[in-house]
């Protein structure tokens, strides 16, 4: 029996990848959903499908987490409708570019810092006071192995995910004295639209990232997140690092030429 059945989960970045996989997984377990992202059509399609398939309530809204005014407006509407999330999955995020700092594009830096760090803060700031007032809530932040070890040309993306790790630890201290839980889930290579976004739409470059080994799927990560949110309220996973078996650490990946991917 799922502990999240009947609960309300808000997922940022639900239009793709890990966020969409979590929406599917949570709905299948009977959770009601609020789905946020910038691509509204995708959200609407997912919301309609999950509502019809699982009989849960799904609210979808176009929200750019960088836009603090929009975040607060949507959050106020939910709070006003007595729809304070039980689960907040701070998943919206991206890498933009892969280059040395001396060659880097400040536009890429702004996108990453504004989304991965400030966006996560905007959303958390909007809901945490209401979770605390109600005495119930679980925040899960999507970190990364990139928040544990820096890799060549990862610089700013690494900094944002180190930042997410610090914020997870900091938030967990800040909610001391309340029953609120704060967790981090830190994946390694997951084949989603992530690399296509990083390489500004270059699909061949993106595909090459996952060649020669079986990367995680978004559903694999959703499994881990489902485990984290399904634990009893007195149990909290502070941080979990999940990698493909072939990824021995951030640098060492067993790539087999011409390998056939499993699963
Ligand atoms: P995807 O690119 O498939 O999904 C990213 C999601 O974030 C999309 O739904 C996108 O929606 C949303 N998003 C991006 N910017 C914004 C914004 N400003 N406001 C609202 N939503 C936004 O990648 P993943 O699913 O892989 O990434 C999800 C999270 O997992 C990210 O935080 C990423 O850093 C992290 N991660 C990914 C790994 C990987 O290898 N794939 C490994 C470790 C961590 P839209 O464009 O419609 O707004
Ligand atoms: C995504 C994992 O190693 O591609 O956070 O940066 S990596």
Describe it for me?
The chain is an alpha/beta fold and 263 residues long. It has one domain (8-242): NAD(P)-binding Rossmann-like Domain (Rossmann fold, 3-Layer(aba) Sandwich), CATH 3.40.50. Helices cover 43% and strands 14% of the residues. The chain contains eight helices and seven strands, in the order βαβαβαβαβαβαααβ. The chain has helices at residues 17-28, 40-54, 68-80, 106-134, 155-174, 194-198, 203-209, 218-229, and strands at residues 8-12, 32-37, 58-62, 87-90, 138-142, 181-187, 239-242. The chain has a seven-stranded parallel sheet with strand order 3-2-1-4-5-6-7, with helices on both faces. The structure holds NADPH dihydro-nicotinamide-adenine-dinucleotide phosphate and 2-hydroxyethylsulfonic acid. NADPH dihydro-nicotinamide-adenine-dinucleotide phosphate is lined by residues 12-19, 37-39, 64-66, 91-94, 115, 119, 142, 144, 187, 189-190, 192-194, 197, 218.
Using the coordinates shown, work out and report the CATH topology.
Answer: Rossmann fold
Q: What composes the largest sheet? A: 7 strands, parallel
Approximate strand percentage:
5-15%
The neighbouring-strand order within the major sheet is 3-2-1-4-5-6-7
Order of helices and strands: EHEHEHEHEHEHHHE
* Overall morphology: globular
Alpha carbon gyration radius: 18 Å
Structure classification: alpha/beta
Termini Cα gap: 27 Å
Question: So, CATH architecture?
Answer: 3-Layer(aba) Sandwich
Question: How many runs of DSSP E, i.e. beta strands?
Answer: 7
Helical segment count: 8
Question: What is the averaged pLDDT score?
Answer: 97
Identify the CATH class. Alpha Beta
Assigned CATH superfamily:
NAD(P)-binding Rossmann-like Domain
Number of structural units classed as domains: 1
Bound molecules: NADPH dihydro-nicotinamide-adenine-dinucleotide phosphate, 2-hydroxyethylsulfonic acid
**What's the helical proportion of residues?**
40-55%
Uncertain spans, ≥5 residues at pLDDT below 50? none
């Amino acid at each position: 029996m799922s502990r999240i059945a009947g609960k309300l989960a808000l997922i940022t970045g639900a239009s793709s990848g890990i966020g969409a996989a979590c929406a599917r997984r949570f709905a299948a377990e009977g959770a009601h959903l609020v789905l946020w992202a910038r691509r509204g059509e995708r959200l609407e399609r997912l919301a309609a499908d999950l509502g019809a398939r699982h009989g849960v309530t799904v609210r979808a809204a176009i929200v750019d987490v960088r836009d603090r005014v929009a975040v607060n407006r949507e959050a106020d509407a939910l709070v006003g409708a007595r729809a304070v999330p039980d689960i907040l999955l701070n998943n919206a995020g991206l890498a933009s570019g892969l280059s040395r700092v001396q060659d880097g594009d400040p536009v890429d830096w702004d996108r990453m810092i504004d989304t991965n760090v400030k966006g996560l803060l905007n959303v958390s700031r909007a809901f945490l006071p209401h979770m605390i007032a109600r005495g119930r809530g679980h925040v899960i932040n999507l970190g990364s192995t990139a928040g544990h070890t820096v890799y060549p040309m990862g610089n700013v993306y690494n900094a944002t995910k180190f930042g997410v790790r610090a914020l997870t630890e900091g938030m967990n201290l800040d909610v001391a004295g309340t029953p609120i839980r704060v967790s981090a889930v830190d994946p390694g290579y997951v084949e989603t639209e992530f690399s296509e976004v990083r390489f500004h739409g270059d699909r061949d470059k993106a595909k090459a990232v996952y060649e020669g080994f079986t990367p995680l799927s978004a559903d694999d990560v959703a499994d881990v997140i489902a485990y984290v949110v399904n634990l009893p309220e007195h149990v909290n996973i502070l941080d979990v690092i999940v990698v493909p078996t072939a990824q021995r650490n951030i640098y060492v990946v067993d790539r087999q030429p011409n390998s056939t991917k499993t699963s």
